Amino acid sequence: MAVIIVGMADLKAAKSPDVLKTLGLGSCIGIALYDPVTKVAGLAHIMLPDSKAITNNQNDAKFADTGVIKLIAEMERMGARKINMRAKIAGGAQMFAFNATNDSLRVGDRNAEASKKILQKVGIKLVAEETGANFGRTVELYAEDGNFLIKAIGQPTRTL
Fold this sequence. Notes:
Blueprint: E1 3-5, E2 10-15, E3 19-25, E4 29-35, E5 40-46, H1 64-77, E6 86-91, H2 107-122, E7 125-131, E8 137-142, E9 148-151, E10 158-159
Parallel strand pairs: 1-3, 6-7
Antiparallel strand pairs: 2-5, 3-8, 4-5, 4-6, 8-9, 9-10
Helix pairs in contact: 1-2
């Protein structure tokens, strides 16, 4: 079993028995996709909701809308089938206290909303989520069974 680290604005796919792990999800979202038939897992660490808001983007993994599409393609190259895939998401925290309703300060909420929207658009069911609050998270996705482990300082470890 290998533990494969997924960096910020990065995505990777793996087969059982490997584990995908990403650290430091604050306002970022960890999007976990899993095909239980082939035991292929994929994890994206997305930073922003919408690639269309940025010109000259060189990194599809940075955004919810393009990251999910690229992650599906990576997983399909490893034998997964989109029809079997299920999704879990974590992160999207509001890391700083603001008294403003300014949308640009709600990055975590906007990342969570965009992640759900693209998953619905591509027809992948979201089966579990842990988003929001005001703390960062580290997540691990187990290709063996699709378990999505969430760790946060001062919080109990949870499995989605």
